Amino acid sequence: MITEMTKYNFVLLSGDADAFLRTLQGVGIVDITRSQLPVDEESEAASALAAKLHRAIGILNTVPEAAPLNRKPDDAAEAVISLSAERDALQQQLAEQLADVDELKPWGDYNPEDIAKLEANGLKMRFYKVRKADFQESWSTDYALSEVSTDDTYIYFVTVSDSDDYNFPVKELPRPRRTYAEAQAEIDALRGRIADCDSQMAGLKSLTDELQRQLDSTRIALDRCLANASAERTAENYLTVFEGFVPKENEAELKPVLDAANVYYIAESAKEADNPPIKLKNNRFVSMFELLTDMYGRPKYSEFDPTVWISIFFMLFFAFCMGDAGYGLILIALGFGLKPKMPKIAPLVVTLGVATTVIGLLFHTFFSTDMLGWNCIPDGVKRLMLPQQIAGYDGTMILAIGIGVVHLCLAMIIKTWQSTRNSGFAGSLGTWGWTLLIVGGVVVGGMALAGVIDSAAARLTIIVLGVISALGIFFLNDLHRNPLANFGVGLWNTYNTATGLLGDVLSYLRLYALGLAGAKLGEAFNAIGTQALGDGGIGWFFFILIVIVGHTLNLAMCVLGAFVHPLRLNFLEFFKNSGYEGTGRKYNPLTENINN
């Protein structure tokens, strides 16, 4: 649900602006319209400092605890970032050295002075490697050749000659720049410097809380700075005007603060044209899904809050794609395990796990085994499970299509309600026409299939609905437009709806396809494990290993698909047919509690 907002215009002396903003931050309920990006030197400096502190804290969170350093650096954040950059550079050098040492290892340790003496006497040493199968023993007699080392694939050797005009049937390798011992010594030195960086960063770990306090303070100051910069100055900059929004439910809390501050203000109910911020107010269950709504965009002030519908259908679609009670139990356990570190995400994971368990029981699937074959389940319970066939088709496929039709019909009903609320009944006759035709047709068709009404009555009702709908679709879709233009627009909308709606309905088959793919892959792992089991004994080890690893991989892939595709069905099919735009801005009050 979208919280109603009150728009405030505060007028005060410019010299009192900063103190007034500090007062509002202490209250923490007024959303002052402000820029989200730096707008002047002061805000740029604060933004850069906040970014530096945030980066330093992120680095320190990845290092282990250690004894604090004896001397605290003047700029701890800069010290942490510099150490991290130095460590990254050393790590890159180490990676290059490790790659180089592998090439040097076959040549072992040699004395570069000996090579220099040969060159001084007009002799040149050349380095080669060749596959064992290609090495010819005759080379040892035809050339001054000495084998250096060999491995499973190659033979490494050198030759010595007294002429630059030298022809050998193997491509010469570049001369090693250093010996293996020298390279290993440099690697050890790099590792020592990396360990020193790690030790220094670990010693700075104790400053994390201090840096966090500094970051919070900087962010509060930056927020206040951006609010001050966005204000309107009048009367030759003597007066400052702030525009802000407050939830109606919090007005009583704000009034005594404003009276005490002796500030002049004008309050009025916010309108869509004011572009008020959006604060969502939902119950505990629905609020878990607000993060999904924010992934697309908050509603405009005149729109509906889609979170309640996302909470129902995303949960249902996720469970449908998973479709396995065993996987649902694992998600529940995972959710409880995440609670200490991810308190906002953990309840959602548990909820999705419960839904998956329920749908998995409905689909009679437990770790990709069919529960209908379990003798321990009473026949009465089995009759509550989804039939494998409905009207000769797969039961889950029919259910997926049915859910999709309901989802789209609901979207069209919401669009009609929204259009009527914002444009009036007369301004939404075209939308009413489509809703009557499609939703009415689905309802009448469903009643006919269920035997509630006979076929003759259903046929007559659909004809009546079609005639009434045609008036709205083709002739009354815009009362201020030429009837011929309305008819042309109606034809175009008919083409788009007829082609788009069919594709939208078929999109819900992905629910069936994903669930089927996960079940079949799980069955394959079960079958492989059963084959490895054999007569038991050591086979039990391989059975358990294959089943655990296989179902872990399958669960990970199922979760990914069950998150992405239900999100798509809500964001694309549902939002498109409901007319949802999601271009609102999030309620972001000035506050001293920047973690809210």
Describe the structure in your own words:
The relative contact order is 0.11. Strand 4 (145-150) and strand 5 form a beta hairpin. Strands 1, 2, 6, 7 and 8 form a five-stranded antiparallel β-sheet that branches. A three-stranded antiparallel β-sheet has the order 3-5-4. The model has no long low-confidence stretch (mean pLDDT 88). It folds into four domains: 5-63 and 209-274; 110-178, no CATH class; 281-390 and 514-580, no CATH class; 409-507, no CATH class. Helix 15 packs antiparallel against helix 18 (483-507). It has 596 residues and is an alpha+beta fold. Helix content is 59%, strand content 10%.
SSE order and pairing:
Elements (H helix, E strand, L loop, with lengths): L4 E9 L3 H11 L3 E2 L8 H20 L15 H29 L7 H9 L3 E8 L7 H4 L2 E6 L3 E8 L18 H24 L4 H22 L2 E3 L4 E9 L3 H11 L2 E6 L14 H4 L2 H7 L10 H16 L2 H14 L7 H17 L2 E2 L2 E2 L8 H4 L6 E2 L2 E2 H29 L5 H21 L5 H21 L7 H25 L1 H25 L5 H40 L18
Antiparallel strand pairs: 1-7, 1-8, 2-7, 3-5, 4-5, 6-7, 9-10, 11-12
